[in-house]
Recover the amino acids of this structure.
């Protein structure tokens, strides 16, 4: 899991996981389509258990909870904080009787506000969702819960109406040595508990074992290790684990910082491994954290789509940014089903750091965002959305968990159960236009309680609003699933409502149909896999490219693997840009399971060319599909490029104004050739952002692509970022994705297509996008407690 910043200054709103699975039949009905795996048994509805797991009850059950020692008097409150009843009871079990659907808390009379006991009453789940229902959940069972709690947690997932769950695995723990496997691990027990509850399991890994390479964050050095690992694991868990994600967020630095070419090569080896172990298992793409255009183009150029059954990605962004994000991912998906295997818009905990609990307002906000996450994502074509995260889990000040540490619910868990019921098997029909009305209305064909209905999820971005319906719905439910009076005239707020109509009656509210799914791109996997071997410190991650020297030959090691079962003999074709020369073997013969280490030698032209140069190797072996390796190269002669607009006066220290959080310090000093910043921020959310106002001649042109500068970190750790402020005051944030090690001076890039709007702290942007020619202020700093010291020089706009 990557740090997912909240939408608060100066953090970007994005960070940190389908193409529409819709076919139109001759009858005009929207039907789900996509791969199928061996499904868990989902045919039975969950039954009430005594005692109720995690104080979660089904409608009609009598509510009985355990009270802690201490207070003798308690007040029962509902979700809104209304006091419902006073209870005189000491420590031990207390019977509260039957209560309607909702979220409730017991607070001690005269006791601390932080001491409360929560409980949830969920609507009865009379008909379980079908195996294709999109409502899924990231559970991280193996990492968060001991074996004795696993069946309880699985029951809580089932009660919520969830169909698929995501777990997590450490490769080194289950496979500590190349020839040694552990038995009866927590991962085996989690798989068994989840499968026994009738849940479909998706498993993912985050790192490689020490014996497989020098850096556990990176893919194994020998892709045969990946093949054998996934083959053995798929075979071991056949019938219990339905799907595998071969790696988590490999595109970001914390999980290795791989290029699209590296991700594609690893994906191909993992696909062959999983299918060798269990041909029925689904193999997901090794999941993008970001929709970086360069990396998506790199993936496409490497023709990896025959090697994933689902296209997986994550997001933690505001809902109105979904259309542009999903558009990028749909285009890269090759028509495969979109699985969003982490998704949320999280909130921040406050108060006692031992509890890491949300305020009452943020508990409500967290709950409101659950249905919005699903509604907005499903409309864009997601086939499955795994909400992040079930257990109590924080990153910094951000709280993600739907449950508290003791398994009792936060309101967001009850909100998830409402989604699990009223968006069961949901397929998007359309939405209302997102215009000045601030209305957000999504229409679905769903199957609550086993009957096909039109289900509308609606809210307003204003404090209040009104909506007149063409007819009365069958029922209205609030975000927790509580029934509301049925009426044609609705009072709306920021909290979503579910409106349930007979099938076909909701279409009159559709003003925009869902985005079209891209066509399914055909292709067959090749058992021949080509892997680039390039030092990680030579990767320009934001461009998914390899930095190559400007003078002399470029030698790139290429490994060729054969994951098939018959000997092969074939040829290679190398395609280069004009003016390049190359040396690479013309032919080779491969035995099953063999790896060959080859060398690609390139010599580039002397004259500067485009910023990114692409080289392709095509392996052709009779009887097999072509295997492609495409490499994006960034020649270090970029400083000589005519596509740069130098900014020499930006290295005058007096032009930079100190900006730092709290009562912290920020000193800016002039160096001989640049600027040095020493910052020691304070406050709970520490940041430092020295800023410079651009002179008119320094404003970038409209076609500018990014900012290049020489950067060096001398002390401290932080997440470095560039903030770009437009003339309107609207601000965008670009992360420095692969900063140089301490003490190393290096050219770094901030690419504008990676810019994220500063949701939550920036003034609004009238056109909703970064316009380079509107940039008036740049802020070069970061987030972190400090103290930090860094220097920069040689700023230039990149205008290729």
């Amino acid at each position: 899991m990557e740090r997912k910043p909240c939408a608060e200054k100066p953090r970007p709103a994005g960070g940190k996981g389908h193409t529409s699975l819709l076919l139109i039949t001759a009858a005009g009905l929207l039907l789900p389509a996509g791969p199928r795996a061996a499904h868990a048994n989902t045919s039975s509805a969950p039954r009430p258990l005594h005692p109720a797991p995690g104080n979660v009850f089904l409608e009609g059950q009598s509510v009985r909870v355990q009270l802690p020692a201490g207070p003798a008097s308690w007040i029962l409150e509902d979700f809104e904080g209304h006091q419902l009843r006073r209870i005189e009871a000491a420590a031990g079990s207390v019977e509260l009787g039957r209560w309607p659907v909702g979220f409730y808390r017991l607070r001690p009379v005269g006791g601390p506000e932080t001491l409360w006991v929560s409980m949830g009453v969920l609507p009865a789940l009379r008909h379980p969702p079908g195996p294709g229902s999109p409502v899924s959940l990231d559970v991280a069972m193996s990492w968060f819960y001991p074996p004795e709690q696993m069946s309880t947690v699985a029951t809580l997932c089932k009660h919520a109406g969830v169909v698929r769950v995501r777990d997590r695995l450490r490769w080194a723990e289950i496979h500590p040595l190349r020839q040694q496997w552990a038995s009866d691990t927590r991962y085996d027990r989690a798989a068994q508990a989840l499968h026994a509850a009738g849940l479909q399991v998706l498993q993912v890994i985050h790192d490689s074992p020490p014996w497989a390479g020098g850096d556990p964050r990176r893919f194994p050095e020998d892709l045969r290790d990946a093949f054998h690992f996934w083959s053995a694991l798929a075979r071991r868990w056949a019938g219990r684990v339905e799907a595998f994600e071969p790696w988590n967020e490999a595109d970001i630095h914390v999980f290795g910082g791989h290029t699209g070419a590296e991700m594609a090569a690893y994906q191909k080896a993992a696909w062959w491994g999983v299918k060798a172990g269990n041909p029925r298992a689904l193999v997901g793409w090794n999941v993008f954290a970001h929709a970086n255009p360069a990396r998506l183009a790199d993936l496409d150029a490497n023709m990896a789509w025959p090697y994933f059954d689902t296209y997986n990605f994550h997001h933690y962004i505001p809902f109105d940014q979904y259309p542009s994000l999903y558009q990028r991912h749909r285009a890269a998906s090759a028509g495969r089903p979109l699985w969003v295997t982490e998704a949320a818009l999280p909130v921040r905990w406050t108060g006692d750091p031992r509890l890491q609990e949300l305020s009452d307002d943020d508990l409500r906000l967290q709950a409101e965002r659950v249905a919005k996450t699903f509604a907005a994502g499903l409309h864009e074509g997601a086939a499955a959305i795994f909400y992040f995260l079930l257990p109590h889990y924080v990153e910094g000040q951000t709280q993600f968990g739907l449950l508290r540490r003791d398994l009792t619910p936060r309101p967001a868990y009850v909100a998830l159960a409402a989604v699990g019921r009223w968006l069961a098997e949901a397929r998007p029909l359309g939405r209302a236009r997102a215009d000045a009305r601030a209305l957000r209305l999504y229409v679905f064909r769903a199957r609550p309680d086993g009957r096909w209905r039109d289900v509308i999820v609606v809210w307003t971005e204003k404090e209040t609003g009104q909506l007149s319906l063409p007819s009365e719905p069958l029922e209205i439910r609030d975000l927790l699933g509580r029934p509301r009076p049925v009426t044609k005239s609705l009072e709306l707020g920021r909290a979503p409502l579910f409106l349930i109509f007979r099938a076909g009656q909701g279409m009159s509210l559709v003003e925009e149909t869902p985005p079209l799914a891209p066509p399914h791109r055909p292709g067959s996997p090749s058992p021949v896999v080509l892997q680039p071997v390039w030092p990680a410190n030579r990767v320009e991650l934001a461009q998914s490219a390899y930095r190559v020297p400007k003078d002399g030959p470029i030698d790139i090691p290429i490994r060729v693997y054969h994951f098939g079962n018959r000997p092969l003999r074939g040829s290679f074709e190398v395609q280069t840009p004009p003016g390049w020369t190359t040396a690479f073997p013309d032919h080779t013969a491969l035995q099953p399971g063999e790896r060959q280490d080859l060398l690609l030698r390139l010599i580039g032209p002397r004259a500067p060319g485009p910023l990114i140069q692409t080289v392709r190797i095509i392996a052709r072996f009779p009887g097999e599909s072509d295997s492609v390796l495409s490499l994006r190269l960034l020649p270090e002669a970029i400083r000589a490029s005519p596509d740069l607009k130098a900014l020499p006066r930006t290295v005058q220290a007096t032009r930079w104004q100190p900006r730092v959080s709290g009562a912290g310090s920020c000193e800016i000093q002039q160096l001989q050739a640049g600027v040095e910043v020493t910052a020691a921020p304070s406050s709970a959310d520490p940041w430092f952002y020295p800023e410079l106002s651009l002179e008119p001649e320094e404003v970038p042109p409209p076609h500018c692509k990014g900012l290049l500068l020489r950067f060096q970190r001398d002390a401290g750790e932080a997440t470095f970022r560039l903030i770009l402020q437009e003339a309107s005051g609207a601000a965008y944030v670009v992360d420095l994705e692969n900063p140089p090690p301490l003490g190393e001076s290096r050219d770094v890039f901030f690419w504008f297509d990676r810019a994220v709007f500063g949701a939550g702290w920036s003034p609004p942007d009238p056109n909703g996008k970064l316009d380079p020619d509107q940039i008036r202020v740049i802020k070069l700093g970061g987030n972190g407690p400090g103290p930090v010291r860094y220097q920069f020089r040689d700023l230039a706009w990149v205008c290729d």
